[in-house]
Design goal:
The complex is a heterodimer of chains A (about 200) and B (about 190). Chain A has about 200 residues and is an alpha+beta fold. Chain A is built from 3 helices and 7 strands, in the order ββαβααββββ. Chain A starts with 8 loop residues before the first strand and ends in a 24-residue tail after the last strand. Chain B has a single domain, classed as BB2672 (60s Ribosomal Protein L30, Chain: A, 2-Layer Sandwich), CATH 3.30.1330.110. Chain B is built from 3 helices and 7 strands. In chain B, strands 1, 2, 3, 4, 5, 6 and 7 form a 7-stranded mixed sheet that branches. By secondary structure, chain B is α+β, with helices and mostly antiparallel strands. The chains are: A alpha+beta (about 200), B alpha+beta (about 190). At the A-B interface, strand 1 of A face strand 1 of B.
Chain lengths: ~200, ~190
């Protein structure tokens, strides 16, 4: 996988969480979410570069790879995914703009291709940090951002990443909303799915 | 027999291509299965806790099978293993020790009779506590290339009255192992050590 790719990947990790009970109430079916995380070399570490197009191309690659991994980890087909989110942590020799170059220009299109749809904005977060830094990946419904039951977040971390010259890139996908969601708002049954909001 | 009450399960798989050296032809994979369960002994000293080990056996087996599945489904690829537990604040470290027998039994069962003792660690900790689960070769503890560890943890576990249980399996040596010692190819496999 590493040979033909622009990204120099050191490591890929997937995390799957399944919540079966909350406050001693059974969750049926259990809520499930997955994150796929790649640790890559930062081609711009240690220097200022005006043109960040290499990272944008890497974002496009990782959008496909990580979404496919997350969906596979859940054992579902892309269109069955309900919510999604993305995040990146830049090692200390990089800048926040490097995370932006990966996440925002080109990553979204392949994510939506793998999932079949995705009318809503993909919620995101980014930071700079050292090894073991925690990424809280925001989650929102993939077709209607206002679905209240699906506002959520998933924490991921890796003890050995990102090194100073690395970037950690994460995509999270779920097949469900929060466990025991009960604060009202737009429900997934009411989605129109046209404007990405409702 | 009280059932084991599971709140949450987590599977984590790492695929390691390199660590600054040559890219591995076959990447090293490490997987962890975590279950967050209710601690039936939380909040008080209970003298007789040993019976709970039997209750944990089916969960151990399920976690070991999930790990093999996460590593591609073939138990033959598994070369290293380890286990661990984090006990929430209303419990004691002895409750974590309940995992030794069912956790080890489960992995041996699923891996078809691995010989080495399963490396382990445990502690008492709060939600988000991290545990470095030690890893050794499944048939010979002294295989130096396979000494490893995998950090695990779940941000919202263990709560005070919970126990977080972990099993870990790997598919090979550290990605750039080169500090000598007993090699996997030299294992005699009689005593579980060499």
């Amino acid at each position: 996988m590493t040979t033909n790719m622009k990204a120099k990947i050191r490591k890929i990790a997937t995390f799957v969480e399944e919540t079966q009970r909350e406050m001693d109430r059974p969750i049926s079916p259990p809520t499930r979410r997955a994150a796929a995380v790649a640790v890559i070399e930062n081609p711009y570490a240690g220097k200022y570069a005006e043109d960040l197009s290499e990272l944008m191309a890497i974002g496009e690659e990782l959008g496909e790879l990580l979404t496919a991994r997350a969906v596979a980890a859940l054992g579902i087909l892309g269109p069955s995914a309900e919510s999604y989110g993305k995040a990146a942590a830049v090692g200390e020799n990089g800048e926040l703009e490097h995370a932006a170059a990966i996440l925002h220009p080109k990553l979204g299109t392949p994510v939506r291709r793998v999932l079949g749809k995705g009318a809503a904005l993909i919620p995101s977060s980014k930071k700079r940090g050292g090894m073991g830094v925690v990424l809280d990946i925001p989650l929102g419904h993939k077709d209607a951002a206002f679905v209240r039951s699906h506002f959520d977040g998933m924490e991921v971390r890796m003890n050995d990443a990102p090194r100073a010259n690395e970037i950690m890139v994460a995509i999270a996908v779920t097949d469900s909303g929060r466990p025991l969601a009960r604060v009202g708002g737009l429900t997934k049954e009411q989605i129109k799915g046209e404007d990405g909001l409702h | 027999m009280p059932e084991v009450v599971v709140r949450k399960k987590v599977i984590c798989v790492e695929e390691i291509f390199h660590e600054g050296g040559p890219v591995a032809e076959i990447p090293l994979r490490r997987a962890a299965a975590v279950a967050v369960i209710r601690n039936p002994f939380a909040g008080a000293y209970v003298a007789n806790i040993e019976w709970f080990m039997d209750d944990l056996k089916p969960l151990g087996l399920e976690m070991a099978r999930k790990l093999v599945e996460a590593l591609g489904g073939d138990a033959e690829v598994v070369e290293g293993y380890g286990k661990g537990a984090i006990v929430g604040s209303a419990g004691e470290v002895e409750h974590g020790a309940l995992w030794h027998v069912p956790g080890g039994y489960a992995m041996r069962e699923v891996l078809g009779g691995a010989k080495a003792i399963v490396a382990s660690t445990k502690k008492v900790g709060g939600p988000g506590a991290r545990l470095d689960v030690p890893i050794t070769h499944i048939n010979a503890s002294y295989v130096r290339s396979h000494f490893d560890a995998m950090e695990i943890g779940v941000n919202d576990a263990p709560r005070a009255d919970e126990i977080l249980l972990a099993l870990v399996m790997t598919t090979g040596a550290r990605v750039h192992a080169r500090v000598g010692g007993l090699k996997a190819s030299e294992i005699k496999g009689d005593d579980g050590l060499r």
